[in-house]
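Regression test attached.
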Amino acid sequence: MALYKKILIYLLLIILAFVFLTPIYGIFTLSLKSIKELIYNYWGIPKDLMWQNFSHVWSGAVVSLRPYFINSFILTIPAVIFIIFFSLLAAYPLSKFKIKSENILLAIIIFGITIPHQVLIIPVFKMLNVVHLYNNILGLILVHIGYGIPFATFLLRNYMLQIPKELIDAAMVDGCSHYRIVFRIIFPLCKPAIAVLAILYFTWIFNEFFYALVLTSTKASMTASVAVGLMTADSSFSIYWNIQAAGALILTIPTLIIFLSFQKYFIKGIMLGSVKG
Amino acid sequence: MTIGKLKSLKSNNKLLHYNNLFNWGELKNSPQYIKFVLMLIFYEIIYNYKMKKFKNSSLYILLFPAFFMMALIIFFPIAFTFYISFFRWSGEGFKMNFTGFQNYIDMFRDARFLNALVNNIFWVILYLIIPVIGGFILALLLNSNLKGLTVFKTIFYLPGVISFVVVGVIFRLIYDPSHGLVNEILKFLHLVFLARPWLGSRFVGLLSLIIASSWQYIGFCMILFLAGMQSLPLEVFEASEIDGANFYQKVVHIMIPLLKPVSIVVIMITLINSIRVFDLIYIMTKGGPLQATETIGFLMYEKAFRQHVYGEGAAYGIFIFLLVTIPSIIYVRNMLKTEEEY
């Protein structure tokens, strides 16, 4: 490739990267400013770094996001574990055996991936009310498990197609039951895909807004994303841009850490689930 | 009661005859009874496991938990939403009044619905242009063997892991009419006449929302296109280069036709996402000013959980479902087709 073309590509990419990073720069600098500085310096580099903003948001007198973050983790971790567990069980027969009406089951799963929240929310809301799981983290966990299973099953099934059938046949000849095959052979071989799923679902469920907004209402079960959303929309905070930015930034930290440490898996997971490359 | 005794009972296969061996009346509520039942269940499982009785049936048992949860959370609710949409229901108890298609008629007569529908169509069209074509161009830029491109890949995908709540907060501040970044930059460039409240009117507001949303979503499209491009056979491009094809011809006549499967996936997912859009609108404008930026997904929430007319909310839900069905059937068929080729 000619040199000027290379330079042109790099130049374009650098400009685009600046544009993409501007909002992140903005929220980062805003969160470190004092309210006095905000009067004359909105988007510049902050003069004194007000790290206190974060502690004010995390467990301050006015806002305290800590309980909501605890809720979010209590919701996310079991939901992710159960999604992966159930999907692992279901993906094994779907990938390794000729079972009756396999194509219909697959179509059901793929169709399930595409259903919007709004179609399901009224019955789900009513069902949880009837069994007294409204405004309860357990109810939210159940909803996320059901909603998350189709994509995870599909992705794991695609991954399992690569596992040679002979391995399973050999185990069955030796008298291994299906459960044992799943846990002793399939599970270790699927670890990369499971890592991908764990990371993807952690971010999705942690960031999820709609279900959490409708199905929770108090501090006891509200998740961090809803708490931050409602806090920043509150008119009493409308001039405290630094507090809004600090709250928003705290919300991104868990997913950002996970993304930056496992970014290879992220990209792999998206490709595995959507396109077969 | 020992396991041995139970085993002998079991091997006689006379479970029903337990009735004669025990005085049920006394035992029924006693802890021993519960213990006994638990032991029986436990024994059943062990026995069947040992006799390999599960071996053939267990494939379906493995499918059961996943499909049960899906049925409970996805497929039963779809049917129930459909059912509710024919009733007038305030959400309390199960007192519903059958009204036939009244909810749908009300929906289509509602000026607010038509307004939201127009907004949603606008959203769908622009969402098919900005993130999809933008993602394609980004993927083209990154699809070469230059050094250091992973850094850019990370940067472009980075917003994709950020919650829409945070995207909403950032962009609400960026679009702020008095001190927002966009207006400050325009002021700095002496283009004050272009400065405006970016979320303050209908189409400009929607466009601003879509740009904010695209910032988050574009990386996803880019990754999919990039994956598709990198799996294309290199020989075709080399052959076309020998034949004297320029860059533009290579992209339009070779790359785009070859990328058709990936493009279908991207376009369908984008369609589905743009039909159901909710989070960002809720965070940034709440449908305002004066319902100017409402979409159908947002209006469904308003109807059901603000105005508590669940019947009409369900009708909105079914409308969204029907809109999504077309792209999702194409998506399913595409997935199953690549399946067979695999």
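Expected vs. actual: identical. Residues 111-142 of chain B form the longest helix (32 residues).
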